[in-house]
Amino acid sequence: MLVAPWRIGIDIGGTFTDVVAIDANGQVEVLKSPSRPDDPTAGVMAALEGLARRTGLATKKLLGGCSMLVHGSTIATNTVLEGKGAKVGLLTTKGFRDTLEIRRGIREEPWNHRPPFPKVLVPRRWRLPVGGRLDKDGRELAALDELDVKAASAAFKGAGLDCVAVSFLHSYANGAQERRAMEILLSDWDPDTIFCSHEISPYAGEYGRTSSTVLAAYVSRRVVPYLRSLEGVLRQNGLFGPLLLIQSNGGIASVDEIARNPACLLLSGPAAQVGALRHVAATAGTENLISLEMGGTSCDLALMEGGRVHSTDRIDIAGYLALVPSVDIHSVSAGGGSIARLDVGGMVTLGPDGAGSMPGPVCYLRGGQNPTNTDAQLVLGRLAPGPFAGDTLNLDDQAARDALQRVYGDTVGLAPDAAALGVVELMDQNLRHAVEHVSAERGFDLRNFTLVAVGGAGALHASSVGRSLGCSTVYIPRLAGVFCAFGMLNSDVRLDEVRMIRRPFNLAALDDLERIAHEREIGLRARLMAYGENGSNPVFSRHIDLNYLDQQSQLSIEWTDNNIESIVKTYEGRYSLLYGHAHKHSPIMTCAVRVSGSRQFPGVSIQKMSVAEYVPPASGKRRVIVSREGGAADVDIYEGSELRPGARLIGPAVINDLTTTVFIGNGDRLEVDATNNFVVRLAVPAQGGKA
């Protein structure tokens, strides 16, 4: 029985909606419910009703005892991916009407000129120029032409547009002209439908700033009404605590804060890994972690170095650039529902599309026709036929086998077992490349990191992937399958400010940066205190963006004191790590100052138990294809709920746990630590072969 008050985290994924509740005594209740992409509000309420039934409470009683509900959703990302956003009008400086069309002139594949750019989100007829001009330092060269603004507003209204984005040249240095344009627009438009670039994305570079502002406007029509509606429905059903959203920066914020900049939700959900990894660092005893969060549709990876999860201010969503403070998440189309096919050359392919929650993998028996990674795992015996995902599904291994036979056996003569092994090995390879992208390609030695296997499917692949990469340890939290929902309950309220300032980096510049940072901290403090009295005092962190003279890109360096030599040394060390050298005698330039403010609310406590080593008995055996070299074997099966701290076992083995299934290979050693989580010590591959 839950003891009030409790907190609830809800993460809507492509296949499942995950719910985690933690009560006043630290008791945890979890639930996985099929997602409802057609009606996310109904999906959230269905998940809460399911949790209420599990805990023996009425839904109103459950919400009435909830002191904080934190929500993560892919609605902003899906709006962009599906092309179902608002009709946006863009006000821009005369001469820069086509900034969105021109873009940055960069191609991801320099030698491939065939892939088209994504469709421009604002057609040219809705991109209207306005008289007025600022220079790069924000000085007014020409006054804003207010008649142009009024005419554009009338034209947008006449065209039946939904909202307006305002992006004037150099507004990052001075937002006065954009603010005046907004005042004029307010006579025709609701405040929630006007978005100004100096507020959304105050970065230098007109394309990135304009693209970010347009994206915020584009997703607003679905994001803001959804959040307002959900908040209202939750209130009607008894919620007395606040509804908070997980932002791209890994922190939480109110609905009102999100309405100011809906682009802050573009990585909502996966960004909750910050709070979750912080908890893992405390339980695992290491601050160097790489998360492999693999769900039904995608796999999201993040790297924590020295207790800090790496961040960025550039997100690419389907080819559209958003400059917003974000966790540095690398997402790949690799999930349990990734569809397996043969390409035109007869090779096994996997994804990028997935089966989703409906119809889902073939083995769900919901009408899916295309075999998936989940179907392959079932045929290999690593997943068991029968009840799955808290008895919400029933896996049919014969249906999965028939689908693999149809796609591979009837075409190229590949038997279902062999096809399934090929699909899983291909997935392992895709995941290995993804891990290398966030680590080795950025100068990090994987031998110094622990791989954290999370998501419903991560623990099926992590041992194989970690072994191939040279990692020695894989850590699997008990709540791996609801990792992000759990992380939401261990996240801080966080708000960010940035100010661009281009000048040589010296003591005079440092004095100006100190003044600017202090002003931003005052503003952030007032906004943070609006979240109530239960949180900690606001804590601020500062970063300076630096680069060498005449360079376009920059590095963000943490700024903890005014020792200029220390800052330069840190910058040069970071530069050398990334590029193999540093320009010791080149002038260093200031690009921007960043200030982040956060408040901690009661997080998830760590409960340690006594450890008594023992070898647990297996609950049964099952035929499992362990590897290509090892073939099939009768493998020990364990129920995770029966494994207590101190349990030791050697692979190959399968552990059926509450939110995930763990598979370990030959010679891998799994133990349950004092916090009741799984630690896997990976077997070292034999010389010239695999373990």
Automatic annotation (TrEMBL):
InterPro entries per UniProt: ACX-like_C (IPR049517), ATPase_NBD (IPR043129), Hydant_A_N (IPR008040), Hydantoinase_A (IPR002821), Oxoprolinase-like (IPR045079)
Any Pfam family matching the protein: Hydant_A_C
All copies of domain Hydantoinase A/oxoprolinase, residue ranges: 209-496
Domain Hydantoinase/oxoprolinase N-terminal: 7-185
Acetophenone carboxylase-like C-terminal domain ranges (all copies): 546-675
UniProt feature coiled coil, ranges: none
PANTHER family associated with the record: 5-OXOPROLINASE RELATED, HYPOTHETICAL 5-OXOPROLINASE (EUROFUNG)-RELATED
Name of the protein described by the UniProt record: Hydantoinase/oxoprolinase family protein
